[in-house]
Write a structure and sequence with these properties.
173 residues, SH3 type barrels, five-stranded antiparallel β-sheet, two-stranded antiparallel sheet, 11 strands, 29% helix
């Protein structure tokens, strides 16, 4: 077992008072919630492997080419002011899974498009809570006061996790 001294994450299961009741969902919402784990952990990885194997044979996917055109010339730093690119520009960088280099662009992130934000942190590492492993990352930016508030499938969440933004989706002001 790893030493997590100084981190609250291992306490989360003990902190819980049990499952929170979900707000009444539509039939489609309940189906999505039920299929979320098998889809995300089994089906989607297979589809991704097949997709990327096919694009590897055909050359670069158009989304990857668009993303290369948006790569910043000067690296971002804490405190920099950035403009979140337009929804159309960001969508041009996404693969069929709505991701760029593994980073998902979630539907509610669109509200921040064409706004100015401040860089909170340039990520280098993060703790993946699925397997409690520290992982390296490059090109991911956290913006000040830009939080996730929940998902359509699971509902509202008060944890306020910072959203991950690819540097290609941002430009310095």
């Amino acid at each position: 077992m790893m030493n997590f001294e100084g981190c609250q994450l291992p306490c989360v299961p003990k902190l819980s008072l049990g499952r929170a009741p979900f707000v009444e969902q539509t039939f489609l919402g309940r189906v999505k919630k039920t299929l979320a784990v098998p889809w995300n952990y089994h089906v989607k990885p297979l589809l991704k492997r097949a997709y990327y194997a096919s694009t590897r044979n055909d050359g670069d996917a158009s989304a990857q080419v668009a993303a290369k055109g948006f790569a910043p010339a000067i690296p971002f730093e804490r405190g920099d002011w950035v403009r979140v690119r337009s929804r159309e520009e960001i969508q041009s960088t996404l693969d069929p899974f709505k991701e760029l280099k593994g980073c998902a662009f979630l539907p509610f992130m669109a509200q921040y498009c064409d706004t100015q934000q401040r860089v909170f942190r340039v990520m280098k590492f993060f703790l993946d809570e699925r397997d409690y492993k520290r992982k390296k990352v490059r090109g991911v930016i956290l913006l000040e006061n830009v939080f996730c508030t929940g998902t359509p499938a699971f509902g509202e969440c008060d944890r306020c996790c910072l959203l991950f933004w690819r540097e290609e989706w941002l430009e310095k002001v």
